[in-house]
UniProtKB/TrEMBL annotation:
Keyword Oxidoreductase: yes
Protein family (similarity comment): Belongs to the short-chain dehydrogenases/reductases (SDR) family.
Name assigned to this protein: Ketoreductase domain-containing protein
InterPro entries according to UniProt: KR_dom, NAD(P)-bd_dom_sf, Sc_DH/Rdtase_CS, SDR_fam, SDR_oxidoreductase
Annotated signal peptide: 1-18
Ketoreductase domain residues: 4-181
UniProt keywords, alphabetically: NADP, Oxidoreductase, Signal
GO molecular function, one term: oxidoreductase activity
Amino acid sequence: MSPLVWLITGSTSGLGAALTNYIASRGDKVIATGRKVEERLGHLKAANVALLELDITAEATTIATQARKAWDIFGRIDVLINNAGVSSMRSAEEADDDYTKNMFEANLFGHMRVTRAFLPLLRSQGEGCIAFTSSSTAWAGLPFMSQYAASKAALSMYAECLHKEIAPLGLSLVSHYMANPMSHMPGDLAKAAAFMVDVVTRNVKDTEVSTQEPTSRKWAVRVALGSDGAGFVRQKCTEMLRLLDDWQEASTGTDRDGEASDAVREMLEFTTII
Ligand SMILES: NC(=O)c1ccc[n+]([C@@H]2O[C@H](COP(=O)([O-])OP(=O)(O)OC[C@H]3O[C@@H](n4cnc5c(N)ncnc54)[C@H](OP(=O)(O)O)[C@@H]3O)[C@@H](O)[C@H]2O)c1
């Protein structure tokens, strides 16, 4: 099995740093990217660890140049992890345009730009995986987190639509739902990083899946991390099903009279993520 080549955005701290360390320790190759990487991550440089300056809010042309440079480092990239992100709390009333724009630049538009820069390269390679670090706040409404949650919810749907586009090209995608919005929640970064790597590697060609999870588990486009992350998602889905049941008659009552439902069935079949 040849080592995989990973590129991680936002490697300079937190989960990105944990991913970089874990991937390097398993013998794969990793391109750790971020802002001021030479200064902050210089100590990590090794035969299988390269650094690349990448501010995901830079202009598209700058990001495309950095993507090309990244590709040339090891001659390919198997996994792109769009992990960088910012979060902060502010009331919806106080969140002005600048605050909102900055949040969406780092949590949504930047990831779109980075993804667009790597897509032609991955497409020509004919295989590879794009992963995103989303947030369980996309599933759970928290006060004073509306801009952050909205940016992550948008990112999650962007990822899901992208999955539909790139699957026919031989590319896979996964969106991870991190929780742990407060320090008292149970998330463990090192375990989360190892789990994310395990999830991704099960769908990258010619690799063996590590033993952390049963290999029979199917590929998933959406994966929750932590009992808090899984809890948020489960609560939302359970409650949403109950709301749908309560409102079923009223909701379907807006259909045109006498319309056949074939189109709905076909659309549901097309949009399934399972
Ligand atoms: N920890 C949590 O509780 C939690 C919960 C849910 C989701 N998440 C998500 O998990 C991901 C990682 O977060 P974390 O917990 O590891 O937080 P973190 O320690 O603050 O790390 C965020 C990383 O993103 C980088 N970053 C921010 N803006 C960037 C930009 N414009 N260009 C390049 N890099 C940029 C940061 O670099 P700088 O140091 O240069 O700013 C940092 O390396 C984020 O997407 C976050 O939203 C985290």
